[in-house]
């Protein structure tokens, strides 16, 4: 059906014009803005003459860790948790061990030597461990006259030494704090 009247042609041109304008507007991309966390975790200030150390973990690391500072157990950190402790100025050795059921605890990362100054906040992060999949034979299934068939299993193996403590800044620490929850340190740790 053709528009024969002048009013009909004008209306058709308006519809086509608006359709083109809306189509072009839908193709435009808004300017990119850097992502910022809307809600920041409030941080403790160190008591005068002391430092405060936040011990953070990757939220996706599935290991339960025991944290030891200067030979003293300060916290058990299950996955998705962090803790904060007070330190005197000086050098402190921070160690993380993985709890094993059948054997003694194994180090999750090499010890970290932190040089703490008074009235400062420190953020130590233990990133996620690197994992690879290992396949092996769990046993054999008898197959009658055909002999036996191997039973294959796969398991995730944590690459030893792939985790290392990293000293980070408050901005990056806020990301870890946002995705994890606090756990109280041991009573004697403070």
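Sequence proposed for the structure above (190 residues):
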């Amino acid at each position: 059906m053709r528009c024969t009247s002048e009013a009909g042609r004008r209306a058709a041109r308006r519809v086509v014009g608006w359709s083109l304008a809306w189509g072009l507007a839908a193709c435009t991309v808004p300017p990119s803005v850097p992502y910022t966390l809307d809600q920041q975790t409030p941080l403790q200030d160190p008591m005068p003459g002391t430092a405060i150390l936040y011990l953070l973990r990757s939220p996706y690391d599935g290991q339960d860790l025991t944290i030891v500072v200067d030979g003293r157990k300060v916290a058990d950190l299950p996955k998705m948790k962090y803790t904060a402790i007070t330190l005197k100025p000086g050098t402190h050795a921070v160690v993380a061990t993985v709890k094993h059921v059948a054997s003694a605890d194994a180090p999750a990362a090499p010890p970290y030597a932190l040089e703490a100054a008074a009235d400062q906040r420190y953020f130590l992060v233990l990133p996620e461990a690197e994992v690879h999949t290992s396949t092996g034979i769990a046993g054999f299934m008898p197959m009658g006259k055909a002999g036996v068939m191997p039973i294959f299993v796969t398991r995730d193996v944590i690459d030893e030494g792939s985790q290392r403590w990293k000293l980070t800044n408050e901005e990056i620490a806020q990301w870890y704090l946002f995705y994890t929850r606090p756990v109280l340190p041991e009573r004697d740790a403070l």
